[in-house]
Amino acid sequence: MEESSLTAAPSILDGDNYETWAVRMTIHLQALDVWEVVEENYEVPPLGAIQLWLK
After folding, report:
1. Of the candidates 22, 23, 30, 53, which lies 20 to 30 Å from 39 by C-alpha distance?
2. Is residue 10 part of a domain?
3. Dihedral (CA of 11, 40, 43, 51) sign
4. Structural domain contains residue 5
5. 25-34: per-residue pLDDT in tens?
6. Where is the DUF4219 domain positioned along the sequence (predicted)?
């Protein structure tokens, strides 16, 4: 059976809702499995490396 997931985008940061926004953004990024980019010293590989990897 196929798995599917649907995540709603977090609310827009308007200056008064930082606490709520930060929690929702963290959950959103974790659901997309990209939170490690924020939490770790993530380095984006050069464009050429990505193109070679895709071949």
Report:
1. 53
2. no
3. negative
4. no
5. 999 999 998 8
6. 13-39
